[in-house]
Write a structure and sequence with these properties.
By secondary structure, the protein is α+β, with helices and mostly antiparallel strands. It has one domain: Orthogonal Bundle (Arc Repressor Mutant, subunit A). It contains four helices and three strands, in the order αβααββα. It has helices spanning about 5-10, 20-30, 40-50, 75-100; strands at about 15-20, 55-60, 65-70. It has a three-stranded antiparallel sheet. Helix 1 (about 5-10) crosses helix 2.
């Protein structure tokens, strides 16, 4: 799952949103690291819809413009939860290895030197 898809799904986890709302929420959730343009967002939404992770919720007119709302599907929620677990596991592994390094304990033995190469 791409970082952008992860944040779009996360933005929809607490309820349906329209495009601009997804853009703003994605930027806030990612602390500004993911900044979507509307055209890019709709490409991501189309792909997530084709994968069954997102679906249209409703359309409404706001100030003369049509707003399309999208929501997370049950499959989308499961995919988001699985990705969050994967990311958390990776972060825990990295944290343990950093702690071991700082404590002066290598978690695994260093690989053997290649023959013919001096250290």
């Amino acid at each position: 799952m791409t970082r952008t898809a992860f944040y779009v799904l996360t933005a929809l986890a607490d309820g349906p949103r329209h495009g601009y709302g997804i853009v703003r929420e994605t930027e806030a959730l990612s602390e500004g690291q993911v900044r979507l343009r509307i055209g890019t967002l709709y490409g991501v939404l189309d792909r997530l819809t084709a994968e069954g992770l997102v679906e249209p919720d409703r359309e409404e007119v706001h100030r003369g413009r049509l707003r399309r709302y999208h929501r997370l599907t049950d499959s989308g929620e499961a995919a988001l939860a699985a990705e969050a677990r994967r990311m958390a596991s990776g972060a825990q592994t990295a944290t343990r290895r950093i702690a071991a390094r700082r404590a002066g304990h290598a978690p695994f033995p260093a690989p053997p030197e290649s023959p013919g190469h001096a250290p």
